[in-house]
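User: What would this chain look like folded?
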Amino acid sequence: MNHHVSRLKNGITVATVEMPHMASVSLGIWVGVGGRYEPAELNGISHFIEHMLFKGTRRRTAKEISQSVEGIGGYLNAFTGEESTCFYSKARHDRYEQLLDVLTDMFLNSKLDPAEIAKERSVIKEELAMYMDQPHQLVQELLNETLWPNHPLGRSLTGTEKTIDSMDRAKLVSYRRANYVAPTTLVTAAGNLSHDKIVRAVSRFAPKFAPGKRPHFQPVDDTQTEPRVRTFSKDTAQLQLALAFRTCSRHDERRFALRILNTLLGENMSSRLFQVIREDHGLAYSVHSCLVFFDDVGSLIISAGMDTDQIPRVMKLITREVKRLTEKVPSAKEMRQTRDFLIGQIDLSLESTENQMMWLGDQLIGYGKIIAPSEIKKRLTHVQPAEVRRVAQAFFRPDRLSLSVVSPLKAARPLRDLVKF
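Assistant: Here's the prediction, encoded as structure tokens.
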């Protein structure tokens, strides 16, 4: 991975990966601010601003923004996370200056027109309604509320109808001015490019980025003492379940053993949960687990959809597999297969310019430096079976467990009886 990082005088970071064999280039402008930086009354404002930057600048209408990229065979998109927001595009490598011009125009010159704000408010409320109509999405939102109660991490990135309705131009301008500043801004690029050329191109726009200070987020106050259960009654064909154990931050050395554990447990079709719940017993079509890491906390989440009557059997099988990881070390064969899968996934994910660009952003936003893929693969290779059992014992505990369920069931009491770890 041939990466380079430069920091400009005003605080903007520019990072690139040179991939001379590729036909494309992918560019991203990141700001190190997301949903967890928002006060409760402004819940969803980062996501609202993300939408508004596509709605027109002093130079381009909304249509001209999309045409400027799609008209050269490229594409343009964005996302808002808990700890960052990213605007990115991809096109043929000789069009990188045009991509950068469009992205910086959006980032710096959005008009935030009141009429467009009013229209986009309706669009975002429709997006929120769409998520509420999707049980598999709703159950994850409920799980976050249960995992991180009374905290920004427990709030929807989209916001609520109340907060969305309250947002006007003054609030959007004020929040953007305070947070979209040079020290929080990162430009990443990957593909058939020259690092020096990208730095020179970004330097031409750099003086227009506002100075300022890095914002701070509210840390998580960890006070859980027993399992938490949250239910939502909805007329659905399936019961959707999301169960989580609070784990550790992205900076914790145990994260490598956790990645092995998560893959063993439920990340792919070879995993224990998939094999037992779907293949052996036919109780669910979808069952998987994943890891979520933040700067100070993290979680391992198990999700499944099933017939409502099957919840006792599914919970019993999940409990059995979770306990088995705390009691017995994985076999040498399982460890080898799991490592090979994770290392293979890293290699495959970095084949594209877009994924390389995302890798740079995630690393620099999350760690302040680039941890080479070779180093991560090395660390995964060195994880021992006993380490996997130790992290299971540390995190698979009742005082770290939260469960959310969306189903036609009316009462939470029967579900509480199923949470026995």
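The chain has two domains: 3-208, 228-416. If you want, I can go into more detail on any region.
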